[in-house]
Amino acid sequence: MENKKVLVSRSDSKYRRKSDLRGQDVGMTYDPASLKALEADSALFGSIRSYVQYTSSEQCFAALINSDCAAILADSVTVDYYERSRFAR
Question: What is the DSSP secondary-structure string of 23-58?
Answer without folding.
Answer: T-EEEEES-HHHHHHHHH-HHHHHHSSEEEEESSHH
